[in-house]
């Protein structure tokens, strides 16, 4: 051997060592790397090498020289596995010229394939024998004897992984109860065994304790969810957490360091789930190989335990001794890391035997130099309960006083009842619910569940419909699932229709029903099929299969309207046997949407009764509302033939338990150095101060003595001016969400828009990448616009407990059982108090402790609740409004009904379904040519005839396609990712929102990924986006105006000598939005740093509006202290707040002309009249505004009473008087006192309204 020969000892991250001999003077570093790679079994490559104790990678053409002879090799385990697979297939094209390489502990340099458990322990014994003989072993440690306790644990882990993977594949949440029941007795895994696996190999098994499902009896033990992690071959031992990783938690580049180490993606992440789904796509031999991979990774973890455990292990060493030793070792290492951190050491010395950190890794510091996390992001991942978490928030994120109110809601015990003898359930039904969800139907029902089931199935009670109105997570689904399952099991011809407002809720109920039916005894011959029939079922074959075979169908009002009812002849089997119709979450059917649903239900009842001889029983469930019985009656109407027998029973005796809930009101901190209120979250940012009237007086008083008595309205202006701008609530809610994920609290963050949802996800992941990188993939977003397959993946991960945090819109608001949630976050007021309670009810189901945090924007609406918390927590239950007699909506659905079956074919029946005005509406449609009599008839249509002639629809195409139930647009833009050569559609955007979200230059966010829109193809309806690493988002510049065709009708003077009702105008109006450019806004500071203009683009829709111009006398009467524009704006809001008291409608059904001071200044000298103007927010109008125009004098009087009676002291009012959530100007320019001035003077300005009685007497 040459005198310059040098032996290089290379060790990879799996513990395997090779020795390569090189000539130090003639061999370059790169040549040595090639030799090391060849020795490791990867020819034609160069290994990545690091000297021991250094973070500098060895590379280049310099000679090896006298460099260190011991190096680490990183990143070649996966490559070796590929080589091994090729050799196993007989591919001999791979050369191995490592003749000079001598490999320790193995006879060849090949990597052995995955071996079963027996092979592992045979290898352990061989290593022990060689160690006893003084030979070197491959593990680098001397083994005494095999450990029987660990060998048994390894076999149990293999069985656990097999069962868990199978359950995941079946979309069933793996729990210890299910797993134990599925195992053979000789390999049964106990909870103690699983906890030992979790302790010895962190990450191999994660045990999550939660309360059992919602319908199970209280007082039982907590359910333990088992989460098995997908292995990665590149780790040193698959599940051992490296010590240096904990030390680098706060370091820049920590994610890269962990990538070097080979950190795996858990199946708790979306990527991990997809990977697991691919691995278990086919069972059989492939499934066995997958289990082998999991088991081999676990065995590598046990090897590490045997090597590092600080005890002298023997063959009979018990498992508990290993667990205690490992826990003690980790506690000692944690203490050493903490000491090293206090001394400023990046990593403790014992961590240097791990692969080095990447270059330039340094600890992240705050501005004042602290690294303890007190003033920066929390880096701890210690699990916390709700009380500990609230205290933690007070010490960290809320240290500046962001928590302005804490409301504690006490627990409520369960009230249980037994079923009466009049209800006889089959043994199959009892067994299904007992085995599926652990619910004993005989003795463990809540009081409202027992009452509802008795009303539906009681043999001594007359047949009646039932509405169950109870709190969130009270087990309402049991009230309808028990009767449906029992009836369908007993009658093979019976069918049932479930109608849910959202697809996510339908998927949740499908999963729950399948779990119940899986426990029906196999001897039952009447087991029935369940199918979903919604927009995601697109193939004709799939839809035909649902129609022909399934007896329980889950759908939504939209599909019932456009697909099932128009093609009812294809549903003869199903409609003929229809026994039950379930309407879940009925409180969501309100306003115009609820009115449409009510008419759809009437069309369904009409077909069942008139054509198919069935009379379904309706079971309605709803959250707590003020008018459950009236709402149920408005929804389902009356039976056309037997309306007197059509009774409804209300069940409101909520017996479900409720745990303690803590509700925090979180007001973002004030920005330092700000002296006036600005709001970066509003569309229109106020940049200049208007110093006149009371504002000028307020400024003068601030500059003078503070002992002067200040009027209340002026004091409000001073307070608003002194408060200043607040920090971004989007950033603050993201910080809270990241804290929840770090401390193992499952959380939903509700956002009002899709863009806010994506921004929260982006911010949360950025925070987690710096504080806990291994948890960054445990958060996701859920919103509309995602592809169906992507939604299903997120739903499965959420239902199974895989994800720890989800930013969502109201898509997950309704009664979805997402498991044991701990926290709900709410970004801004959701629109109604009932909606807020519904969202908050997602956490703490049953008796679990829960936390809800309402983070307010700095707009007047949220700030009102921040200052007046009792207005939120003491608010009464809200009413649900349905106007089933709306003439416009009735006309649309009568046309649809005529297409399905001729109108008035059965005398007197359709007048019951469509109301007393049905003939009048039909006459108008006949005159318009939309309905016609039978072509063979020679008699004209006569609405006054005793028996009306049948009417047919004048179309061959289903009219339902032209009737939008909830203003969902049919026209969409596809968002296409062109980052790669293969284009992929990742989402869709409604056409009306395309200019808001996917214009050229827009930053589009999808599942936390930022993409840049490069092209908006208007002809093909496609938006092209590509990946972009940008640290800003974009905000479009637009202006919305409401115009009335024909200027004189709106600009003409108002004749106050006439009654007000004669001065109100009602006609078509145009609502147009003009887009002129966009601004780039920095993520961190929320500051605009660039503006881009593009040619103006506009969108508009035509609707119906009503308006009343403010008389000129009132304008001249207003003094300088009255801001008339703000008064008219606020008064318009007050009129809209009064409208539901006379015309049933929702918050977003009607809008008004809103005023913004910024836009008014930008318009320059453009004249804009002072007027009340309200309009329908639905294309073409839905009749609400026409009815409001008739009642406008009365509505203005009610609005004045509301403003006077409101006790709020703020100048900008509150939601009870002059604020609206749907305000286009975000309530930026409203004034309560000015509104009262306007309303008083408008009422007094006009002549009195004529008395109806005197008018009749004079006629």
UniProtKB/TrEMBL annotation:
Q: What's an example GO BP annotation here?
A: interstrand cross-link repair
Q: Which residues form the Helicase C-terminal domain?
A: 732-888
Region (Disordered) residue spans = 347-379
Residues forming the Helicase ATP-binding domain are 457-643
Give GO terms: molecular function aspect only: 3'-5' DNA helicase activity; ATP binding; nucleic acid binding
SMART domains xref list: DEXDc, HELICc
* Gene Ontology CC: one annotated term: nucleus
Entry keyword annotation includes Transmembrane helix: no
Alphabetical list of Pfam families matching this protein? DEAD, Helicase_C, MZB, WHD_HRQ1
Q: Which UniProt keywords apply?
A: ATP-binding, Helicase, Hydrolase, Nucleotide-binding
Q: Which InterPro entries match?
A: DEAD/DEAH_box_helicase_dom (IPR011545), Helicase_ATP-bd (IPR014001), Helicase_C-like (IPR001650), HRQ1_WHD (IPR055227), MZB (IPR018973), P-loop_NTPase (IPR027417)
Protein known as: DEAD/DEAH-box helicase, putative
């Amino acid at each position: 051997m040459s005198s310059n020969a040098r032996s290089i000892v290379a060790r990879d991250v799996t513990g395997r060592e090779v020795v390569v001999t090189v000539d130090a003077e003639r061999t370059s570093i790169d040549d040595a790397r090639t030799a090391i790679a060849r020795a490791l079994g990867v020819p034609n490559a160069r290994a990545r090498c690091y000297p021991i104790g250094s973070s500098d990678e060895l590379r280049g053409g310099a000679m090896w020289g006298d460099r260190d002879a011991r190096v680490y090799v990183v990143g070649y385990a996966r490559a070796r596995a590929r080589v091994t697979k090729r050799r196993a297939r007989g591919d001999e094209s791979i050369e191995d010229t490592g003749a000079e390489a001598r490999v320790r502990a193995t006879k060849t340099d090949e990597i052995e394939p995955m071996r079963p458990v027996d092979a592992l322990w045979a290898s352990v014994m061989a290593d022990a024998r060689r160690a006893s003989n003084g030979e070197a072993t491959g593990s680098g440690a001397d083994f005494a004897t095999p450990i029987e306790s660990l060998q048994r644990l390894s076999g149990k882990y293999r069985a656990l992984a097999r069962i868990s993977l199978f359950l995941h594949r079946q979309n069933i949440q793996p729990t210890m109860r299910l797993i134990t029941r599925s195992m053979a007795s000789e390999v049964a895994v106990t909870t103690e065994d699983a906890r030992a696996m979790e302790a010895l190999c962190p990450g191999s098994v994660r045990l999550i304790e939660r309360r059992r499902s919602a319908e199970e009896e209280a007082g039982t033990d907590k359910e333990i969810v088992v989460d098995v992690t997908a292995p990665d071959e590149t780790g040193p031992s698959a599940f051992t957490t490296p010590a240096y990783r904990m030390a680098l938690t706060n370091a820049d580049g920590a994610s890269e360091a962990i990538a070097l180490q080979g950190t795996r993606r858990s199946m708790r992440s979306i990527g991990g789930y997809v990977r697991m789904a691919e691995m278990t796509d086919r069972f059989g031999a492939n499934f066995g190989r997958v289990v082998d991979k999991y088991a081999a990774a676990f065995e590598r973890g046990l090897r590490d335990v045997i090597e590092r455990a600080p005890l002298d292990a023997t063959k009979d060493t018990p498992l508990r001794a290993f667990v205690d030793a490992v826990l003690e070792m980790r506690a000692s290492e944690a203490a050493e890391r903490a000491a090293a951190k206090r001394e400023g050491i990046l990593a403790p010395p014992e961590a240097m035997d791990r692969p080095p950190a990447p270059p330039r890794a340094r600890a992240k510091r705050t501005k004042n130099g602290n690294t303890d996390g007190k003033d920066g992001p929390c880096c701890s991942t210690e699990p916390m309960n709700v009380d500990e978490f609230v205290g933690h928030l007070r010490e960290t994120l809320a240290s500046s006083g962001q928590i302005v109110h804490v409301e504690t809601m006490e627990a409520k015990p369960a009230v249980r009842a037994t079923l009466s003898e009049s209800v006889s359930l089959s043994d199959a039904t009892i067994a299904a619910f007992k085995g599926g969800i652990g619910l004993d139907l005989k003795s463990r029902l809540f009081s409202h569940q027992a009452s509802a089931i008795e009303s539906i199935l009681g043999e001594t009670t007359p047949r009646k419909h039932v509405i169950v109105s109870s709190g969130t997570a009270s087990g309402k689904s049991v009230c309808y699932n028990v009767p449906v399952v029992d009836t369908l099991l007993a009658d093979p011809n019976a069918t049932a229709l479930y109608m849910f407002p959202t697809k996510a809720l339908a998927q949740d109920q499908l999963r729950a029903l399948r779990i119940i039916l899986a426990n029906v005894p196999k001897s039952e011959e009447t087991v029935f099929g369940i199918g979903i029939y919604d927009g995601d079922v697109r193939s004709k074959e799939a839809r035909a299969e649902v129609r022909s075979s399934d007896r329980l169908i889950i759908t939504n009002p939209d599909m019932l309207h456009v697909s099932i009812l128009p093609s009812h002849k294809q549903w003869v089997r199903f409609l003929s046997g229809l026994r039950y119709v379930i309407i879940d979450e009925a409180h969501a059917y309100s306003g115009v949407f609820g009115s449409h649903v009510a008419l759809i239900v009437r069309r369904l009842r009409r077909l069942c009764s008139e054509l198919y001889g069935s009379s379904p029983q309706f079971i309605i469930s709803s959250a707590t509302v003020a008018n459950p019985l009236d709402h149920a009656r408005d929804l389902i109407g009356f039976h056309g033939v037997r309306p007197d027998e059509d009774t409804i029973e209300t069940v409101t005796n909520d017996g479900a338990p409720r745990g303690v809930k803590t509700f925090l009101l979180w007001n973002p901190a004030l920005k330092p150095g700000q002296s006036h209120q600005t709001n970066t979250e509003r569309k229109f940012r106020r940049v200049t101060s208007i110093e006149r009237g009371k504002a000028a007086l307020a400024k003068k008083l601030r500059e003078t003595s503070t002992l002067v008595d200040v009027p209340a309205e002026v004091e409000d202006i001073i307070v608003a001016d002194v408060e200043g701008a607040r920090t971004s609530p989007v950033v603050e809610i993201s910080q809270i969400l990241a804290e929840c994920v770090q401390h193992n609290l499952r959380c939903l963050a509700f956002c009002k828009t899709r863009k806010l949802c994506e921004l929260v996800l982006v911010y949360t992941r950025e925070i987690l990448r710096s504080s806990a990188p291994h948890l960054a993939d445990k958060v996701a977003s859920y919103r509309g616009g995602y592809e169906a397959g992507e939604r299903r993946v997120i739903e499965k991960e959420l239902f199974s407990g895989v994800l720890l945090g989800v930013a969502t819109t109201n898509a997950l608001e309704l009664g979805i059982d997402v498991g044991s949630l701990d926290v709900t976050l709410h970004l801004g007021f959701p629109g109604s108090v009932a909606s807020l309670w519904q969202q908050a009810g997602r956490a703490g189901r049953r008796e679990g402790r829960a936390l809800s945090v309402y983070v307010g924007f700095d707009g007047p609406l949220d700030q009102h609740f921040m200052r007046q918390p009792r207005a939120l927590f003491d608010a009464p239950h809200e009413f649900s409004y349905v106007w089933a007699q709306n003439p416009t909506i009735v006309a649309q659905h009568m046309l649809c009904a005529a297409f399905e079956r001729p109108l008035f074919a059965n005398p007197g029946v359709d007048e019951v379904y469509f109301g007393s005005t049905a003939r009048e509406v039909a006459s108008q449609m006949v005159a318009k040519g939309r309905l016609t009599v039978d072509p063979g008839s020679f008699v004209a249509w006569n609405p006054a005839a005793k028996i009306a002639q049948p009417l047919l629809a004048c179309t061959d195409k289903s009219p339902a396609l032209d009737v939008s139930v909830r203003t969902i647009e049919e026209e969409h833009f596809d968002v296409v990712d062109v980052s790669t050569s293969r284009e992929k559609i990742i989402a869709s955007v409604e056409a009306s929102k395309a200019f808001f979200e996917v214009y050229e230059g827009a930053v589009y966010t999808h599942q936390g990924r930022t993409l840049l829109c490069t092209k908006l193809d208007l002809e093909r309806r496609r938006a092209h986006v590509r990946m972009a690493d940008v640290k800003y988002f974009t905000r479009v510049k637009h202006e919305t105006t409401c115009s009335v065709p024909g200027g004189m009708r709106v600009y003409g003077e108002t004749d106050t000598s006439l009654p007000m009702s004669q001065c109100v105008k009602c006609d078509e109006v145009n609502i147009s939005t003009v887009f002129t450019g966009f601004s780039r806004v920095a993520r961190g500071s929320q500051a605009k740093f660039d503006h881009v203009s593009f040619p103006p683009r506009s969108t508009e829709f035509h609707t119906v509006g009503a308006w009343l111009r403010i008389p000129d006398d009132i304008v001249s009467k207003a003094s300088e202290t009255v801001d008339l524009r703000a008064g008219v704006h606020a008064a318009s809001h007050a009129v809209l707040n009064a409208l539901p008291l006379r015309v049933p409608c929702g918050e977003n059904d009607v809008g008004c002309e809103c005023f913004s001071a910024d836009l008014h200044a930008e318009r320059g000298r453009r004249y804009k009249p002072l007027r009340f103007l309200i309009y329908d927010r639905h294309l073409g109008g839905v009749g609400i505004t026409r009815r409001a125009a008739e009642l406008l004098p009365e509505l203005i009087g009610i609005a004045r009473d509301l403003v006077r009676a409101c006790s709020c002291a703020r100048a900008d009012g509150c939601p009870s008087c002059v604020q609206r959530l749907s305000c286009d100007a975000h309530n930026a320019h409203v004034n309560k006192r000015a509104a009262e001035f306007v309303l008083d003077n408008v009422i007094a300005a006009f002549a009195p309204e004529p008395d109806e009685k005197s008018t009749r007497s004079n006629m």
